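Issue 218. Parser rejects a valid record. Input:
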Amino acid sequence: MGRGLKAFLGIAFSLVLLGLLIWWQPMDEYLAVWQQATLWPIAVVFLLTIPMVMLRARQTQSLARLQGMQVGFGPLVGLQLATTFYGLFVPGVVAVGVLRWYRLAKLGGDPKATMALVVFSRLLEIEMALLLGLIFWMLDPLAPGSPGLPITFFLIWAVTALTRFAAFHPWTANRLEGLIVAYWPAQRLGGIRSRLIGLLGVTARYGTLTGRAWATLLTNVLASNALGLLSASLAAMAVGMEVSLITLGWARAILALALLLPITWAGIGLREATLAGALVAAGQPAAASVALGLLLSLRVVLEAAAGGLVELHAWLSPSPQQRSNP
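Output the parser choked on:
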């Protein structure tokens, strides 16, 4: 299936979900929410995109340094924005991860180390989002009483954590390398064999992180989640919702799981439907919950637009070789 067809289907499914949401509640309720919306929290939500992008870039830089990659902070900020921009056209976590790996490898120059960085970072982000969602759920007296969701949180968190631990532990890398050396003759697909051994060597580095390195990583991840939660809270305030940070905390965890599905364009429609379903179950008004999702989707689109401008500037600006050889 071509990228153009995937993008078309994603846009179509986003429009279908938005149409169902509009049909779900009377239009008068949606209009009332937007007529009473407060503008200054919306402006702050959009401004928070800047520190959120910078935190993600700082996290990537920390992981890159652990792999011996020296990448500047400015290019990483541009990479974060460009990744969001291209995420509009290559839906799905895997596709965006591959794109991120390719662009980061061009900056860092080591494809194997970059692949380890992208996978480790993504697993850690999912792991922390689910763990925080589980904690918020247990602390929230308004959370629905069904145990299905917290059990799902826990099971997916456990699988993700075990996968990250096993994939990046030195024992696993050494064991797999020993099996490859023992049972994979060097003359058979030697290039693939050597690349796989090299990949195992770089993945093992994340299994020996010091306490200081873990403190830096977790601080970045927690700060990023805190800014995301603050952004959601301000967006809820803008549309007149009285919802606690705790409720928004586990609702964002559900959203993080839903957005792993590559079925919509930039998550639009899916984001609104997921938040509406979660927050209505916690007693929040439906129309305002959909409006909250729309504001968060608009923030993502604006970030992608900034990434498009970054890419346009890079495309129009001559490279150092072109400047030296006009």
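Fixed in the parser; the record now loads. Confidence is low (pLDDT under 50) at residues 320-326.
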